[in-house]
Amino acid sequence: MAIKRPKDVVMSYTDTNGKEQEAHLKGLMARVCLHEYDHMQGKVFTEHASKLKLQMAKKKAMKMMKVVEKRKQPMEIGDIDAK
User: What's the pTM value of the predicted model, to 2 decimals?
Assistant: First the structure.
């Protein structure tokens, strides 16, 4: 599920010496930092998704689980020809 995030971010932080720093991040590094920041704030990616996108993703996951469960069942001799 795709989550929209800014392509560029500026983050302020305190380094290990107690000095205020500022990081200008772009692309994947910006995305990763925002993802991790969400975790530090107690958020998960599903909180950023619309209800419709979340419902669609759940349906897709359920469909995939049915396929996996079906594959776990023992195969019959006739099943070999069908695969």
Answer: 0.57
Local confidence pLDDT in tens for the 83 residues of the chain: 778 889 999 999 999 999 999 999 999 999 999 999 999 999 888 887 888 888 988 999 999 888 888 887 776 666 555 55
Domain ranges of the chain: 8-73
For 68, half-sphere exposure in the C-beta direction (CA atoms, 13 angstrom radius) is 6
Q: 20 catalytic, yes or no?
A: no
Topology of domain 8-73, CATH:
Peptide Deformylase (3.90.45)
Active-site position among 22, 36, 69, 76: 36
